[in-house]
User: Fold these one by one.
Assistant:
Number 1:
Amino acid sequence: MIMEKEIKKKKLTDEELIKKFQNGDVWAFEEIVRRYRDRLTNFVYRYVHDRREAEDLVQDTFLKLYQNKHAYKEIAKFSTWIYTIAANLAKTLLRKRKTRKLMFFSRLGPEDKDLDLPSKDRTTQEILESEHGEKLIQQAISKLPEHFRIAIILRDVQELSYEETSSIIGKPIGTVKSRINRARLRLQKELENM
Amino acid sequence: MKNCYRFKTLISNYIDKKISFRDRRFFESHRKNCESCSALFASIFKTKVKMHQMPQITVGDEFMTSLRKRILDHKNARILSSQNKNFSLNRIPAFAYAFSSVLVLVIVGFLMMKTSGSVAPQSQQLPVATQQQIDDARQFQQQFDATPGYLAPEQMANTQVDSGLGNEDDPARNFENNLNKVDYQKK
């Protein structure tokens, strides 16, 4: 009986699940959390570059969803809506972090500390193929301006469509396309400089 | 140089396969002829692939436990705050604040006007000119009453009734007198 219920729940779309949750089904909420916790944590981690903060932030996102479940109207995709909440929270965190940085002057993230940079005479392709490739990309992403960073993460890491990215960022598709192109060029430059 | 700039603006469209036939032809021919642009495209494409292949972070079961705890804490905090708030200024609706502030303003305004003398108290005397007019009218009335041959309205009524009653033989006159009496009483 429980197994049947689980299978049924897995077949439901996100929009059906949130509707169930709006009607008081707490199990639907747990299914939503199960579906989105990793995706959102990845997205936020790439954006804020701190795992603990990313997890806290995703929990905040789900808490917000729990508190404001009726705020979701079926005019947008649920995934876009929840990504927007997470993105807004992440932006707020980065703003706070900037203020903190101003106060404490310099602070290295936990991921920055134990990284040996490769020698500069290697090509970008060699760097990418090295064991540090992923860390270097992550570092290069962190160096991008915020509006480029969020666009490239949503498009290239999360592989969302231009339409979804545009709804989450709240900018027209043309702007998003241009930002992604410029972000890719800028990222390449950052990687070359490493 | 101009072609290189155009090539750079088209890289994303080409990678995402959202490029027109004409642009695609230009892009591919330029890529064959320009070594630096070709290298740039190759590295951007590789980075894009690598970005998608970056290891995915997975959260453990403690994530769910912690989230449940936070939700529960939030619920408890709400219950507690609603219990503690038997009386709170937050509960008073905004219109009540607005109404009371308007009331206070009106009272203060009235008091200020009263002290400055703009509002006339009810017991104040009439202006001199008006008082003069009233006195003149009274004097004229007294003079008129004192004139010989003039009967006051009450005296006139009595006279008419008396004369009417004394002439019982003339029913038409009697009727007219009675009518006058009734009219006067009505007045």
Note: Chain A has eleven helices and no strands.
Number 2:
Amino acid sequence: MPVPPGVATSGPASTVVPGASGRWFLARPNLQLLVDQLRADGRTVIAPTLADGAIVYDEITSIAELPGGWTDAQAPGSYRLAPRDDGRLFHYTVGPTSWKRWTFPPRVPMIDGRRDGAAVTFEPGRELPTRLAFLGVRACELAALRIQDRVLVGGPYVDGDYQSRRASALVIAVECSTASSTCFCTSMGTGPEVHDGHDLVLTELDEGFLVRAGSMAGSALLARLPLTVASVEEIYAAREQVAAVAAAIGDPVPTTGLHDRLLAQVDSPRWDRVAERCLTCTSCTMVCPTCFCTSVVQRSDLDGTASTGERVWDSCFSLGFAKVAGGNFRSRPRDRYRQWLTHKFATWIDQFESFGCVGCGRCITWCPVGIDVREELMAIAPPLELGVEPAPAAPVAASPSEYRVGRVRSVRHETADTTTLVIGDLDPAFLAGHPGQFAMVDLPAFPSLPISISRYRPDAIELTIRAAGPASTALTRLKPGAELGMRGPLGSSWPLERAAGRDVIIVTGGIGLAPLRPLIDAIMAQRRRFGDVRIYYGARTPHDLLYADEIEELTQRPDIELGVTVDRAGPEWLGRVGVVTQLFDQAQWDGSGAVAFVCGPERMMQVTVGVLAAHGITSDRVYVTLERHMQCGIGLCGHCQMGKYFICRDGPVFSLASLGGIFGREGV
Amino acid sequence: MVVSTTPARLRLGIVKFASCDGCQLSLLDLEDELLDVAERFEVVEFAEASSLRSRGPYDVLLVEGSISTADQAAEIIELREQARLLLTIGACANAGGIQALRNWTSEQAFRAAVYPSPDYIDSLATATPVSEHVTVDASLPGCPISGGQLREVLASIAIGRRPQIREESVCVECKRRGTPCILVSSGVPCLGPVTQAGCGAICPAFGRGCYACFGPKEAANTASLGDAFVGAGRAPTEVGRLFAGFTAYAEPFRTQVTERRGLERSAPFGRPSVLPVGAVPPVADVMRGAGTAGGPADPAAPITPAGRSKAGGTRARRRAGDPDARR
């Protein structure tokens, strides 16, 4: 990001600077000389210091006031100081103060007004800023300064007070040598290495500091300090140290697509969940180094002839912030939290071309009830990809002019009109198929039919077929030993890895259970990789329930929830009667983060996705299968076109999001 | 308009019920600005400053203290009829005060425990906020109230504008003054996150948790804060007792005290002998007011001296005489 006008005086120089490219070593006691130099230049030195049980930023005159021998232990809602037995001066992360206390103070005089009869006069309230030097600015905090530069100086209107304070500040950065559990600069791309925005940067080692200059002013300072050329070992140790910090933090908030992911979730039920914990106390925004919202408070005398306006830090979490005559746009705490989170991680990008978050973790540590913004982000707007989907299985005999022959090994009549064929003696390519894929099945003299694979066995597959027309009826009448022609496995599959680590919802109706059965098998085979698993299954009557024995077995399992309902039933049926969505439309579970797999008649799927949306499962986490007339099975014959898709080749499994407006539309 | 070159003085009364007088004294603490107040307001009743008494009418009546005796309950209704703008000041008037802790127990037991001749004591079983008895136009929180906020309210009435009193938590004041959160940094239980600001966040600056003198802030999520205290290892009764301070009887503190049995161990406390009769208007700033049946006064409307503005006077008298305004 370019340095905005008016701030460049302390920013990095673009020209080649003597000493700027070099790495120098400053013995620890000589840091005092740097402080002395800054003070000799008329600067007030602001640096970390111990006060009130925390490491805060305040004016220092001696490096003895730095928190040498102290570190911090941070967790959501908790901050504790802890002593150390070495002499390091900067071995901790960020505390409750941020540098905005000096660049953008909590109280700034704005304007004085006077009324004298009919005449009014105004006078800007002005404070002459002192020249500042910030010592100990972390990489995330440099990013925060850049963001506030962009917001307050980089737009069409300039905050003059900020501009002059910021321009006066010399920035001496420190690279982190430790990470807190609340840090996530790596995810936000702001640290822990220091790249730009500094005049000097220090990396603290056991005996002193590795020093680099980042500007003319920084180089000039270096020229006045007793430095030695850094050794290769020291340079290496400094690099290792910062790399270890980055590795310790990892990547807790994958930000790819976060803007869109978050803005798609304005109606997530998770906002209500977090509002149950949120105190709307404003602490997160007050400690945030980028939050810039303010209000001007007027104070007048009792006859209204003189008033003083003072700008104070304000927060979108306070009720008055969005108040207008007659009402309040964000009276509900959930709306205030949503405003803050979506601003920081989405709309800030639209306004200012970067996230409004630098990953410093202050909002996590200083939340009195420990709400972790990382956790909320991942629950509200989870990353699009968690696991790697296996490549689709390569079909054998894809072309309609070829077939592979398989043999019916056994036959099981599921219901009056539905039969499962176990097919063995077949090409191993079929066994390598994925849940959701189908085979084109052919009997001579009959048209070929797409039949989804309803189970993968080690040496066989199962096909569950409902006798709906002559060809399917002929298939259901096959006896063990009969042969049939097959192509496949074809089409897309249920994206199992997408659901790894998440809650899974499976909703199915009628024969729709068949293509989901291999998915259920796969989930059960690796049950611990998934969160809560809920299966909802509806059939027309109790006699139309498929795989009755297996359903019974699943019902006994404590690690899944299985709901079964029928449209109509006689008195012998003791279970639920009603449409499948009634099994969960009143359920209390929270679907934010969950992945849903839906297969059944199109009308049933339409109703289902509506109920899923109400539970917070957004369209990118809902997968459906579509059925159209398929003939070739490989996208060449054109029969199964739907919008831009060939259902056989691009489907039959689609994410609802990918279907957009065509899902459920009549006549498409 | 209200502002004129020779402003007429508004009749200001300050009365008290069950309370310590500390809020009234905030007016005297204005010191230098007291003369400005006196220029705009004719103080017609203020026992702390003058023995002159008045029976009204008042343009502005500041009421301190909770209603603790039958006489007080009758008197507040009479006063309401004399007052065009009735403001409650302080935790006692707004929320019942510390004496409202007796609402959780038997008042007779206390009387017997404290006084050698309890028969001489004539008090109600409960100490209740003024708003449970009459319509309150606005309330100023605090124990005691902030002199600066009182001055701001008087200035806003004199000028005819909204008072600039911010609806925000004590956390905001801690952060502005640079006090690291003691709840986070040392685990000291602090009610600041659910407490209306206005005190300047004095206690946390001295390492002491906020004990909610200013009462609950808007949308005070006391359940979540209480859960966090319990999660940090405190006994539920201890957490309930944290809320049992000067503003205990204000919702949603009251619910925390009751549900977490905050007063159960300290006999003769127990379950509240009197459960909420109706919603107690929140202890809030004067912008929201705390009016109930009669509705709050429009804070944006200019207040003019009694009897000198037909519109204002008529409207105010209608409200004062409105039987619905009484409870």
Note: The longest strand of chain A covers residues 107-116.
